[in-house]
## 1
Amino acid sequence: MTDVGPADADEAVFMAAVRSGDTARFALLTERHRRELQVHCYRMLANYEDAQDLTQETFLRAWNKRESFRGHAALRTWLYRIATNACLDFLDKRNGRTPTPVDLSARSEVPHLQPYPDQMLPEDPQESVVARETIELAFIVAVQHLPPRQRAVLILRDVLGWPASKAADALELTVASVTSALQRARVTMREQLRGRRLDWRSPGTGELSRDERAVLRSYMDAHERNDLDGLISLLRDDLRFAMLPDPGTVIVTAKDAVDGWVSGGLFRPGHDDWRCVATTVNRMPAAVLYLRTPDDPRYRLLNIAVLHIVDGKIAELTGFDVTDKPWLGLPPTL
């Protein structure tokens, strides 16, 4: 993920575009970095729509600051620097409007969290290899427990693999400050991600396992057949469940989770005609749930259930209410 070394042909062409004011060439050279910059903004913000907006803001700032590019660093590095600082500015404003809770425990949720569609992840295989552990919901939530600049340091150093000096330059900090911030950030991440792999830069795979595909199919089949016992059998008895944008993650037994869904009106007559579509978000298996009511001829988008599967059981289920939201390219009706 690093890009050290002298300016290559892209940088030379980019500098020529800057000198000539060639907006078309400028856009062509920056646009090829859109997907990876958008993932970077998402890791910083945990919100897909905000990440889209901040990526666009990055390109706008890049154009306005184009004369500052001297070719001493790679174009990619320069854009990451701009994106990181755009996200920090955004977080300063957002945190000013919405105070951060004093006690951010491991069970705290992120109310603005949104899933990230896999089809928008970088197409470069090297980018995809690094993506899974650092794009899964648990990682994204854990990172939000860090103060913004610690968050930026962790992502630049431990996810992107930047050296301390490069991260310090991007954030206008000293190397000692970056090193200290990284140490504190790693302690928090270990607390938040207990039992999970923390070596984020080692090779991994973005593909779902056979277990994950099988459990996802069984989960969707149980929904469509209103098989409550089947659903219970798929859930771990210490299930971590969240339904966003409602606040809070709860740990419940499998039976209590299903009983709660029923008491909320689901799986009862009139709310028991399901169709499900398999997808992946955040490199995780997900079921898109559609519900048809007696007075409606069509199945309508209800929510996205994102599953974290451990040893053939659903250990974490994060639901996103997408009622009446044609979102992530999903059809609003079936």
## 2
Amino acid sequence: MTPTSPQSSLSRIRIGSAPDSWGVWFPDDPRQVPWQRFLDEVARAGYGWIELGPYGYLPTDPARLTEETERRGLRVSAGTVFTGLHHGPAVWERTWAHVADNAVLARAVGAEHLVVIPSFWRDDKTGEVLEDRTLTAEQWHHLTSLTERLGQEVQDRFGLRIVVHPHADTHIDTEENVARFLDATDPELVALCLDTGHYAYCGGDSVKLIETYGERIGYLHLKQVDPEILARVVAEELPFGPAVARGVMCEPPAGVPALEPVLAAAQALGVELFAIVEQDMYPCPPDKPYPIAERTRRFLRSCGA
């Protein structure tokens, strides 16, 4: 096998999937598949890594979770936390309690990262506007300084790295806002989880971001959007939840961005990176996720991953 053959070309990329690809958005919801089924199917589809998903969906007892993942040949890459740090010091204690619960479990099961998702400016179900979509200068300062504090605390107390996830309907979304956030934060404390689908949803170019801010890319979520559905979502100003229900996030390789150049740009950074498949599908029929996950894994293998 030569160094440039497809099988070895993405040797630094570690592929996984997440509960999100099985329609899981909440710790407990009757419309979601049971966690045992998720673990069985993600392993059967050919993935070796998973994320924890919403805290409480998978077992929170580290010994049990370790037993359940190990017997299926799975390992955990990251936990996920939700923050509203632009609200300032008043939300720190509540935020830290949520982060600490996730970090304790993530560290105990061998994860290296915490994916940090900013709070939504409008409700992702009802579309209710919760706050202004544009931050004030003071709110930007709170967001950047407290995210740095979060990165330091998580690093010092748990030995984990935070990776901030630009997300539709949050204040870290577009190329402009992502660049502003990165330029205002310490690279030693704050890295980026580049979600290719969310970034495209908000008009961004993932390859350009990787090439421009390569040293800040600490983690990848692999996802695509359907450009035709996205155009209607934008025209109708739909919130993210209803957009997902319409199928705006689609099965690769049917959407954008093309994942081959994204993976090649990530490989060229010369560092080990997780690339976790996430295809937002909430809610979805219980038999829908597995065939998609299997086909997606096959597609990524054809890309060399």
